[in-house]
Amino acid sequence: MEVASSSETFSPQVHVQGFVDEAVKTLDVSDLYSKRDILKSVTYAAAMGVSIETVDELKSVCSMETLKCPLEDVHRDAAEVPTGTELVTLGLRKRYLDSKPNINKNCKFTVLSWNQEHAYQDVKPPPEREVKPQSAVLQVAVFHPSKKNRQKHKGKRMRLAQEYRVLGYQKLTDLRDAITCIADHTIAGEYSERPCNVPDIRAKDIYKSAYFFIENVFYNDLRYEDNRDLSKNVREWKQNKHEGKGSYTTQNMEDVKFNDLHIRLGYPYLYCHQGDCEHMIIFKDLRMFHADDCRDEGLYPLMVDRYRFRRQMCRVCATFTAKWVTYDDQLAEESPCFFCDICFKALHYKDQTKLADFEAYPYVDMGIFNIAIV
To answer: TM segments (predicted)?
Structure first.
């Protein structure tokens, strides 16, 4: 069951656990992933009229590995051209790469799905981390936060931030903890008077409240004592505006598994954190766990796609990533203006004394999410 695009018509509402129960009754899915090789060998042997041993021998003889030359396992840099080569194409590629040092600067989206889906396919995890048989797999797309100025950005498409695969028996809190957003990493406060005393405390360490809004139910994250019910104002507004008709309900996120949900594939739902940072989420796919899936339960929620950000460079040296952003800065030509730590302190302070009027805030660059994944 799958919806290829959020622009298509969404599916009817489906209960995830009900889908699993129906699939188990209809399909032979018990331990299918562990018997995959045996089933294939039996099928091939019956089709060719030979024994299973003959099929296994053919597999080893006709393996892709036997077609490789010894040097094919040596990983070489495409920009390094061996001396004395007569390959004109390789020489032209070298010349092209030298003239385009920033050739990949416009590559904004990293395609991870092939690597992520197959990196752990043949790795057998410890028995305690094996994915439970007869499990549902849901694919969830998480989009960038919606813009506050909707008129200015009217007509612009929502950008995908991350895409995850989750197991049906996982809790909603597992997905909530996996989602990465720059709002969770910001440092609150203005520090122009004390730039050396910036605390190493992120917003996610202080404001831990969040909720998912799925099919008129608010799933609140109340795992910590100081967490708040962020949905309270919305529910009160709904109650007053519609005089109690069709009121929203609430549940604790930590008590709900994906199997318990009623969802519609392709339908937009909401993830909200940091008070008002709102992400649209869409369930793109619902299916049973199969042989090609990662079998290590500890790697789920498994990221399969992610947006790639450009770094915000320092406006002075244009070399290092920005660590500070200033507003109404008398020493800068624009507001806001971005600086690396070295340039910021060299330009704005002398003997730790502020040289002009400005506001300065620690800046967390979104490029921190560009770290490569195997």
So the answer is: none
Domain spans of the chain? 14-27+107-307, 34-99, 324-370
Mark residue 280 as left, alpha or beta (left: phi above 0; alpha: psi -120 to 50; beta: remaining): beta
pTM, 2 dp:
0.73
The per-residue pLDDT for range 255-290, each reduced to its tens digit, is 999 999 999 999 999 999 988 899 999 999 999 988
User: 14-27+107-307 has which CATH code?
Assistant: 3.10.290
Residues in the chain: 374
The Cα diameter of the chain in Å comes to 87
Residues of the chain with pLDDT under 70: 1-8, 28-40, 70-85, 97-122, 147-157, 242-246, 370-374
Q: Give the residues across from 140 on adjacent strands.
A: 164, 283
Is residue 354 within 8 Å of residue 192, measured between CB atoms?
yes
Those residues with Cβ within 8 angstroms of residue 114's Cβ, 6 or more apart along the chain or in another chain: none
Give CA angle at 198 (195, 203), nearest 5°. 140
Mark out the alpha helices in 74-222 (DSSP H runs).
88-99, 113-118, 172-178, 203-206
pLDDT tens readout for residues 208-244 = 999 999 999 999 999 988 888 888 888 888 777 766 5
